[in-house]
Amino acid sequence: MEGTNPVNKKLAAAVSGGAVLVMALSGCSSDSGNNDKLNSWAKQVCDAVQPQAQKIEAANAAIQKETSDNSTPAAVQSTDSKAFQDMSDAYKAIGGAVDKAGAPDVENGKKKQTDAVNELNGISSSYADLKKQVDGLDTKDQAKFADGLKGIATQLDKLSKSGNDALKKLEEGDVGKAMAKQESCKSASASAGAGATKG
């Protein structure tokens, strides 16, 4: 088993970085003005993001657990496959929620919204691709499986470090402040933060 363990750890570390993307949608700043339109937009998005953030956190936790359990390649494959599918679904759902909420009532709101939706859908596609790759790995050949996982971990690492620029732009300024006031965004941020420290 020692062949896959360091790779699994690398995979787990890369995956936990992915949760950061969701946090881009959970504003951390406080005190926004009384823009009811913007607050109502923020509430709609935050309420939709919360369950998806929990789903992504659960997928992260599953991969972390499988990693530390020194599991068989087949078990790792099965867990990772489901986790990547869940992440893909969650990012797609968040993209759908931002799309459905419409443009936030701020300058360049429409562009910010469109860019964020495109980005979220792109992340969703990336996780769907990773699921296909993990499904295609040869679990009977330990060395090949380890190599395959290494490649997936590298892609995950890139995915976790890139791709949330549009989300950051979306929640700059008043949008972020309005989102920070929403209970659902606070709890989405707290649950993902708690999960990240467990690792």
Helix content: over 70%
What is the 3D form? Answer: elongated
**Total helical segments:** 8
* Order of secondary-structure elements: HHHHHHHH
What class, by secondary structure content? mainly alpha
What is the arithmetic mean of pLDDT? 80
Distance between the termini: 21 Å
Topology, number of strands:
0
Tell me the strand percentage band: under 5%
Largest sheet: none
Radius of gyration: 18 Å
Contiguous runs where pLDDT drops below 50 for at least 5 residues: 27-32, 193-199
Structure description:
The protein is 79% helix and 0% strand. The chain is built from eight helices and no strands. Helix 1 runs antiparallel to helix 8. The two termini are 21 Å apart.
Question: How would you describe this structure in keywords?
Answer:
elongated; mainly alpha; 199 residues
Summary, kept brief:
This protein is mainly α and 199 residues long.
